[in-house]
Design goal:
The protein is built from 11 helices and 14 strands. By secondary structure, the protein is an alpha+beta fold. The chain has 3 domains: 3-106, Rossmann fold; 136-188, Dna Ligase, domain 1 (2-Layer Sandwich); 191-313, D-amino Acid Aminotransferase, Chain A, domain 1, CATH 3.30.470.20. It has a 6-stranded antiparallel sheet with strand order 13-12-9-10-11-14. A 4-stranded parallel sheet has the order 3-2-1-4, covered by helices on one side. Helix 6 crosses helix 7. The chain starts with a helix and ends in a 13-residue tail after the last strand.
């Protein structure tokens, strides 16, 4: 999409307090879009971005979420909404029609795909049905099936951002952790080189994949990344995206492991990743082609080619200093 076309677009970006939403808002601003930056926390850093229209919204779990979002869209009339908040996706999918009636375009997976991207048990089921390597996964009542004295990971079934993730070595340790972690799931731990794939799946199902190693991870965010090429990994990522039904901008994670399966897929998120600027720095026009597909224009996959060995190092930035009470 050209910068002239982008300048005509007003985009509502949600979750600007997190790295994916913050960086997406900045990338869209650079393309000339008019950005409504939204987050449920009044101190979200993305609400302080220069040249955005900031709005504090109610959380997705709030009973007033539907009416509040529709009221916001009726007031500010965005042309489209791009969410970077997993917990919003199901509710946004249910709002396609009323949002469309307000002139707001969405590009969301179907409900089954959203479930596979937000529920780790559903993700495991989808990949297992398609014979795609993924960690063995157990719900708490299935723990007796887990091999003992094997490294395990206990995490929330619908968690994000590496919150409440705990490592352990035995089934008994996992049982204790399952009492502490909300709605837990247990997985065998995978060792190897961890990677993220920044992806764009067009409306015909064609997917472009930009690979980068997660070389240093803090709080679930890759703060040091390096792009790389690997045909086997890219093809397995594409198979994974098809298995879960991903569309639009999304990201997948996995390991190049030292186990019996060289590549093991661990998750897909139906949103941009926190480190996607690495892919753009490597030459992939990810945000520009996302805009094209969002408004039902052809995605130019040639413009999603990228260079390997481009590094991204994220750092803490002081965006604004405020006085007074909140």
């Amino acid at each position: 999409m050209s910068s002239t076309d982008a300048q005509k677009r007003r985009i509502l970006v949600t979750g600007v307090g997190g790295a994916p939403g913050f960086d997406l808002a900045r990338s869209l601003l650079r393309l000339g879009c008019d950005i409504i930056a939204a987050d449920s926390h009044p101190l979200a850093v993305g609400l302080r971005l220069p040249n955005v229209t900031p709005r504090t919204t109610v959380p997705a779990a709030d009973v007033s979420y539907r009416s509040s979002l529709l009221r916001l869209c009726a007031e500010l009339r965005p042309h489209a909404i791009l969410s970077t908040v997993e917990h919003e996706l199901g509710k946004l999918a249910a709002l396609r029609r009323p949002l469309s009636d307000l002139g707001v375009t969405t590009w969301l997976p179907d409900p089954a795909a959203i479930e596979a991207c937000t529920d780790k048990a559903a993700f495991h089921t989808a990949l297992s049905k398609n014979d795609i390597p993924t960690p063995h996964t157990f719900l708490p009542h299935e723990l007796d099936q887990a091999p003992d004295c094997t490294p395990l990971v206990v995490k929330p079934r619908r968690g994000q951002g590496a919150q409440d993730v705990h490592l352990c070595h035995t089934r008994e340790q996992a049982r204790v952790l399952c009492e502490l972690v909300p709605a837990p799931i247990v997985q065998e731990r995978v060792n190897g080189a961890e990677f993220t794939a920044d992806c764009l799946v067009d409306r015909s199902g064609q997917a472009s994949v930009i690979l980068r190693y997660r070389l240093l991870v803090k709080g679930g965010l890759a703060v040091v990344s390096r792009t790389f090429h690997d045909q086997e990994v890219a093809e397995l990522v594409q198979e994974t995206l098809a298995a879960v039904g991903a569309v639009g901008a999304c990201c997948a994670q996995g390991f190049i492991s030292d186990g019996p399966e060289r590549v093991v897929m661990t998750e897909v998120n139906a949103r941009v990743a926190g480190g996607f600027p690495a892919s753009e720095a490597a030459g992939a026009d990810l945000t520009g082609q996302l805009l094209a597909g969002l408004f039902k224009n052809p995605v130019d996959h040639d413009r999603l080619q990228y260079r390997p060995d481009v590094w991204l190092i994220k750092y803490t930035e002081t965006l604004i200093v405020e006085e007074g009470q909140r």
